[in-house]
Amino acid sequence: MGWLRAVFVAGILAAPALAQEEPEPPMSYERLGRILFALDDAAQPVGRGFQLTISGVPVLVVTDPAADRMRAMVPLRPAEGLTAEELLRMMQANFDTALDARYAVAKGQLWAVFIHPLSPLEKDQLISSLGQTVNIARTYGTLYTGGAMQFGGGDSPGIQRQLIEELLEKGEEI
Hints:
By secondary structure, the chain is of the alpha+beta class. Helix content is 40%, strand content 24%. The protein has a six-stranded antiparallel sheet.
């Protein structure tokens, strides 16, 4: 095995250096604003944040530079009247299908949210997470999904598969 290790190490040492991408500058309120205005030229600054619309869904993005935090939020409905089944389903989705976005309750309201430290947030990560937040808002009450993929090991695939099984069963009668 000594020769294999020598070949492996020699190969690594002889391998050409991979091109290094320039690191993105830290996310700031100003940089965040430039990105959001690129996504929606009708976006509006509001306090320490912004209001914009993505695919017809109103999104509020708030920042706290002193705490180095940001939050993107979409209001869904009043929290009052949520059933135990709905709450359970949202928690299941938070585990496997909501991805970087989450369902949350605050101030008597149900929200679709994305919460992240501000400065390490990268442009593509922000854009993807805004899309996921809008997707979980749009699929609330149905698929409860961020839209990109599912993280395995949760309950959502079985629940979603149940609908397909029910439809296949109904289709057997045709």
